[in-house]
């Protein structure tokens, strides 16, 4: 049944919504796809649901192709499974909590690992039942502190989450790779330029993970890539650790007066002026900067730590928090406040150092009750530093790591900068921004152990199942597609993702023109194409054309004054072309073109996985010009129907 603009529940707008900053937010709102209900919460209108259903259909097809079976869980879940797994605390304020009339705790599900695990535990008991892969497309809820950018970061969103269950690690590896291929295919079909990058598991846990990043300046994630193919989320980049240096002949550490030097810059200037080196000038890289931070653990405990790193580097708090070095679960990390420093008078602001006495350090060593001290991996034994002497206006020179001080551990907390070497030796890193649209995890046995998911192996012994988790942000993907495919005048969907295959405009008031548009609508529908018909009587052609540009269907049929001469204007907005076709050729030509677009999208998906090199490899998935995916109404050019 055709969508008719005369009765369609849609109102387009000329003005951007208040507070909208990115193109997808502005255009999806203006074109009548979504409406804001509350911060980070949106109502879906008919056009939006049409596009969303096409995206979901592609995702489901690729999950089915990978051998996964669909289930559906509630969004309202009891608290107990999340308490058992430890994530009731780990999620912290991101959880939406509520109670029923009997005072039982519930949550609005942020993700479903626990209940998937319990479902399999309830139904399966033997290795013969495995491997198993199940998935759902479900609404999720997270109490984002700063919901922004429309669908890119919401408090309510749709996600596809899948879970694999295997008897051993080899099975998990195979399940993981099958899902990786499914993601590469899905994103290629969806026309989203996508880069799989190494990532950190965070609170999810597990032995390995990759994110799928849509490169875009509107993204909140920073990732790196090298000329040789290395790609990673900035939080997952590891430093190249230098060799240790013999320090037997190193000069003894000595404390010097360095008044008015609370910053790295002032310290370097003072060192070069009063205590110059013989071989070269002091630089910021010769200083050991000690940054005081506060860690808030999942249980609410606040801990003060100090991070030591070369003075030419800034601390990346997000990177440090994601390393797993700061505690179990997801932690919050921030710069220490003045109140924190006041509670620790031994920390002299601007002049903090690890101390000279290994038996009585100012900063704690493992097993002590002192403040935890974590070092950048580049601070290896034998390296010599200028650092604070824990007295106002004084610094230690020639303080040697491993001889004069040690630490409780290392932490990747230094900001990654342009030109840093890739960990695999594949060249200098470049930094870019992007949107995370999917992530896959080798969860291992974390949730199976917490929830006692075991099956009998072939020897009759109870064995803990190993799991994988695979998330894909459906509504976020839709926003990224809108970011990728739009013009100054509106959205411009890939052919297979538009809310209709053809947009027919009645550009005249005669009965003949109106009837011809109806005839074209029926002809296209008989060929399996969906139609949006602009049949509004009291709207000018110019207004209709503006709406067509805003709504973004790439194939536009204009039934107007040319009808009297036996021609119809056909617009291909993806190619930015217009043509006049004889009336008798319009349907066949358009149907063939739309079907070719679907076929071309399939080819893009095949090409995306043709060069897959395995879990550690990097495969860039680029969109195909104009037409970049294949939804379920896939017909070939030979004349097969586009409908299911």
Q: In CATH, what is the class of the largest domain?
A: Alpha Beta
> How many distinct domains?
3
Category by helix and strand content: alpha+beta
The largest sheet, given as strand count, sense and whether it forms a barrel, is: 9 strands, mixed
β-strand percent reads 25-35%
Nutshell version of this structure?
With 644 residues, the chain is an alpha+beta fold. The strands form eight sheets. Strands 4, 8, 9, 10, 11, 12, 13, 22 and 25 form a nine-stranded mixed beta sheet that branches. The chain has a six-stranded mixed beta sheet with strand order 1-29-28-30-31-32, with helices on both faces. A five-stranded mixed beta sheet has the order 17-15-16-18-21.
Could you explain the architecture of this structure?
- Helix content is 25%, strand content 26%.
- The protein is of the alpha+beta class.
- It has 3 domains: 201 residues, Bira Bifunctional Protein, Domain 2 (BirA Bifunctional Protein, domain 2, 2-Layer Sandwich), CATH 3.30.930; 157 residues, YbaK protein (Alpha-Beta Complex), CATH 3.90.960.10; 105 residues, 3-Layer(aba) Sandwich (Rossmann fold).
- The strands form 8 sheets. Strands 4, 8, 9, 10, 11, 12, 13, 22 and 25 form a 9-stranded mixed sheet that branches. It has a 6-stranded mixed sheet with strand order 1-29-28-30-31-32, sandwiched between helices.
- A hairpin with a 5-residue loop joins strand 6 and strand 7.
- The C terminus is likely disordered.
